[in-house]
Amino acid sequence: MNNELKKTLKPVQLWGIIVGMVISGMYCGWNYALEFTSPVGFMVAIVIVTVFYTTFIFSYAELSTAIPHAGGPSAYASRALGKFGGFFAGFSCLVEFLFATPAIALAIGAYINFLVPSVPTVVAALVAYGIFVVINCLGIETAAKVELVVTVVAIGGLLLFIGVGAPHVELSNIFGGEIFKGGLSGIFSAIPFAIWFYLAVEGGAMSAEECENPKKDIPKGFILGIVTLVILALGTFFVTAGTSDASILSATDSPLPTALEGIFGAGLLSRVMSFIGLFGLVASLHGIIIGYSRQGFAMSRAGYLPKFLSKVNSKGAPVYSIITMSLIGMIFVLSGQTAIIIVISSFGAIALYIISMISLFILRNKEPNLNRPFKVSYPLVPAVALVIALVLLVAVTISNISTVIWVVGAYTLATIYYFVYSKIQESSSEEIEEFEGFDSEIG
């Protein structure tokens, strides 16, 4: 085993990974926002979040092409802010991805339970999780091919849903009733669920080292990916909210089949949508496993995490990182608290976005001559992304203070770990140097 990844990804496969990581957010999770706000209030949250992700991804494409590294955000922050900045960004990425995965696995369990009620949700979630851990261990080429297929099927499912549902949209479902439900606080509470439409889109950067031509392929994959996701997110929300009562949507784990049941009654179409929905959820589960395993691999290789996590097998897969990180994710599946898990994942994502944009500004000043094959409109676009990210951080913190306290506690423990582990690493290096010096004197 070594610690080199294989360069096999083409632009269309990178696009498949990027869209696949996110697409489950169309099939479930976002609808919990309607417990706190009205469809109109949620539309406000969606617009804010969509503007943020569009500006962020264009900015992020600059970073990922200038520094095509499996560590993604941890590599950018390390170069801009030093080793602790790199650790903070990497840990934020792991919080985002390791909490997103259990939420997606639980949603898979809920969809399977909808199709086969005798199968418990948590059992189905764990089995699905385990299957895709095994597939990931077969190497990025196999993993990317599987990801592309399930992503294309999932997109087809969303287009089918939008096509059959659009003629039945009633604007009164969106613009009627209590439009100002929850007020500004309700919109703030809805933001993590609007983020769920796009969360993990930046994960494609962790596949940079496995692209055949990262300098050209990454911008293509990112830009095509965000365009695809914006169209699907807006279409999915409009049709679902326009055909269903908000109170029903806020209480279901499978909003698209529920919407179709409301239009056509329980029958073949809603079951077909549940089946196709599994492809969307599987695409995200599979894609995010790719993302967090590469982040763990890169952090290990950089000396932030134990060295064994940066070993790869004969297929070029970081198998120890895949298995170790996935076992952590499976523990959170047992909690069954999907909505809370989404908030925690969103907090990690926002922290990651802020430090990434700060890194972009620092690197523009610190390394103006760095080779940047793709340049964003500077400073306007990254400035907009950074300001909105700070607003999102305030919104998520204020509206979920009891959950965020636990997240802050986790960051505190991670910081303590970083400094203790760094000291141990320094001591080990000094002992090796002293031994080598003593050994050479004897020789």
TrEMBL record:
Keyword set includes Heme: no
Gene3D superfamilies registered for this protein in UniProt: Amino acid/polyamine transporter I
Claim: Nucleus is one of the keywords in the record: no
One Gene Ontology molecular-function label: transmembrane transporter activity
A Pfam family recorded for this sequence: AA_permease_2
Subcellular location, principal: membrane
One cellular component (GO) term of this entry: plasma membrane
Swiss-Prot/TrEMBL keywords: Cell membrane, Membrane, Transmembrane, Transmembrane helix
Transmembrane segments: 12-34, 40-63, 84-112, 118-139, 146-167, 179-201, 222-243, 263-292, 317-334, 340-364, 376-398, 404-421
Subcellular location per the Swiss-Prot or TrEMBL entry: Cell membrane
Protein name (Swiss-Prot/TrEMBL): Putative amino acid permease YhdG
